[in-house]
Each structure stands twice: as C-alpha cells, then as structure tokens.
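Standup notes
- DV: blocked on the single-chain target, sequence here:
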Amino acid sequence: FSIMPGPLYVAVAAAQRTHRIRFGTGVTLLPFHHPLRIAEDAAVADILTGGRLDFGVGRGTIAVHFEGYNVPRDESRARFEEALAIIEKAWISERFPHDGPYYHIPPTALVPKPLQKPHPPIWVPSQGSSETIDFAAHPERKYVYMQNFNPFSAAVRYLNEYREVARAKYGYDATSEQLAWAAPVYVAATDEQAM
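- DV (later): unblocked, structure below
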C-alpha cells in the first residue's frame, strides 16, 4: 500500500545529507493522529530540514486503516478538515483554543513554530473528488492529482477543475507551483522491459 509509517523522520534523515532538495510527505493521514502532535512533529521536521518541508495531508480511503485505528470511515472528511484547521492555527497563532466535534483544545501555544512562514506548503491529494479539489483550492493550500487508478486523460480534467475552482471561488489564478501530478511509473531501457 506504499505505506511509510514515519515520513517526517525519513525527510529529516535525508535532509542531513543534502542541501537543496525539498522533502514532502505524501501523505500524513490526519484522521488517525492528534493534530497537535502532527503540528509539533512537522514543525520540528521543517526546522531540521532547514525549511525544506512540503507537508502532504490526506483523509485516507482504505478501510483496513480505519479499522486498525478504530476511526469510523464516514467521519474521515470532517476529522481531516478539523485536524488541518487546528494544525494551521497552531502554526500561525501565538496561542489558540479549539472546540470542535472531534477535538477540544484549551488555549494552547505550539512550540517550536515551523521555520517557513507562515508555515510549510500544505499539499492536498485527490484522485478526482470534487469536494477535495474544492478544499485544496484554498489559497493557503496546493493540489496533488493522484494518478493511481484513473486514466492519464483524466489528469487534465482534474487539474483544470482545480484551476477553475481557484479562480471562481477564491479569486486567484493557480500556477504550476500550486499543482502536482503524481503518477506511478516504471523506468527501463525499452518499452518491452518496462511492461
């Protein structure tokens, strides 16, 4: 399932051996973790990478993951959106409270803050869900189209949908710096070897 249980740790370790490469998590599944713990871990990772962290977040879709964490799958979107709101507030606020359906946080200050200001770039992946595209089009976020199961021709449609939502709902023109396309590939000397 392409699972990496500690991508922030791997990013920090790799950053100690490089100087310019950026590191992205793809993705931290927010419904399975307390948002303050993730905010702290990502802030430390941003500091230890020298401000080279791109923070990929998602809600998850695989049923066995929800069973393993004992999280109702039908709560995934609401939990994801609330957790990300808490993480964003923790990174930019000196002190903040939060009282939501899943998390109750008294006035709290996150220390340390990320090195990047106002925070590391936040990437939201989707395989074409209009709800997720709408959420990702917020000006403080970036969008990753995941090519896992859709045909290659679908990429243009979903990337254009993101651009249209950004323009119509949020009033800005999305640039290539706000879009990514993740597709599985196999590199070989010939097409036959790749197949």
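- Follow-up: DSSP finds seven helices and eight strands in the chain.
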